[in-house]
Amino acid sequence: MRVFYLTILILLTTMKAKSESLDYLVWGKYCGECVDNCATMHRIDADTYKVDTTDSFFAGKPFDYVFKGQKATKEEWTKHSWVFSIVFPSLKENEVVYGEPDAYDQCGVYLSYSLNGNPFKVLIDLNNKPEEFKEIISALFEGRQQSK
After folding, report:
1. Phi and psi (nearest 5°) for 52?
2. What are the pLDDT digits (tens) for 111-130?
3. pTM of structure
């Protein structure tokens, strides 16, 4: 009987880990009052890393942004693959805005990610970072990796 309960516990633990699995991540900082590369975006998934320096982020509404990046080398993917160790929150809504991103020249952060097929898009005011994204922003933009 102990083996049965142990098996159930292992399965539940595995299921929980799977439910938080990152499919892809698009991240970047955007600044409306700047010249050239004002919205450089990065995209990584299980086997590719791309960079979008076209500033196409500003072509329409932020949540309608279509990534237009160029594929980078496998070495670049390896260099950025640590993002898969980040624990991203599963949000109640698929599109969320925190504060007033880039409203008063403080720039904003754009995140688009998918957790097991559930997509989320987030705009974050850098002066009003929500608690669940503070460590993520530090890891992505300040080079400080999350503590576990």
Report:
1. -115, 110
2. 999 999 999 999 999 998 99
3. 0.81
